[in-house]
Amino acid sequence: MNKIKLKWKRALPNFVITGFFFLMLLFLSFLCGSSVKASDKEASENQLPFSPGEQLVYQIRWETIEAGVASFNVQPVTKVGEQPCRHFSLKVETSPLVDVFYQIRDQFDSYTNLDLNRSVRYSKKETGSEQRDILVQFDWEQGVARYSNFNAPREPITIPPGTFDPLAAFYKIRGMDLGDKKEIKFPITDGKKCFMGRATVVGQETITCFNTTYDTYVIEPEVIHFGGVFEKSDKPRLRFWITRDERRLPVRIQSKVIIGSIIGELVSIR
Prior knowledge:
Layout: H1 2-30, H2 38-42, E1 55-62, E2 65-80, E3 83-94, H3 96-99, E4 105-113, E5 119-127, E6 131-139, E7 144-149, E8 152-153, E9 157-158, H4 166-172, E10 183-189, E11 194-209, E12 212-221, H5 229-232, E13 237-243, E14 250-257, E15 260-269
Antiparallel strand pairs: 1-2, 1-15, 2-3, 3-4, 4-5, 5-6, 6-7, 7-8, 7-9, 10-11, 11-12, 12-13, 13-14, 14-15
Helix pairs in contact: 1-4
């Protein structure tokens, strides 16, 4: 029993959160392009495939076990200081079964400028088995990201123009056309490191998730920058299925690593 509990405690923090949420968002951010285009600056609310009030809910499974739920939400426009910003949020929580071994109750918030071409602020609060209160502030005058946890700062890191936090990147990808792309790269930061990731569009596939059928692009990211169980796995693999329509919905993510198969699927849209 102790060995099983230890395995859950080591695996779930990396894969209920990192495996589904963080890796998915990092990967999706690679698809956005590494520079700010004029069309990005000219984008209007009517051209975006989402608006305040939208909610996407995903079920996360480890093999056949229901491990947790992730809920992505578009919030009303708000202000960070004096700057009007778009506000996106994500809530992740483990299932009652997993709570017995390792409870996760996480809240993520992202703020971007109205043109949706760079991040302004990013935060993460963990109130489950581990406690964290992370804040990342993007200082574009200095070209740095400033990270702190419970108000304890780290050294700022340099970031290139147009850098997004992982959650904001989830929404940036929704307006991109993947049809003519084969290899994509993009800078992304969580406040502690910033790197260029690469991904490949490997094909198209029609899949069914919870009785709904989708026409999708199948995409594989390069996982060389991902730590945890990816480093310990022999030939790890990560795949994403993103709808080919105007909404660009990530409907499935699947990884195969040393601890087994992790799957996240879209279960509801509001």
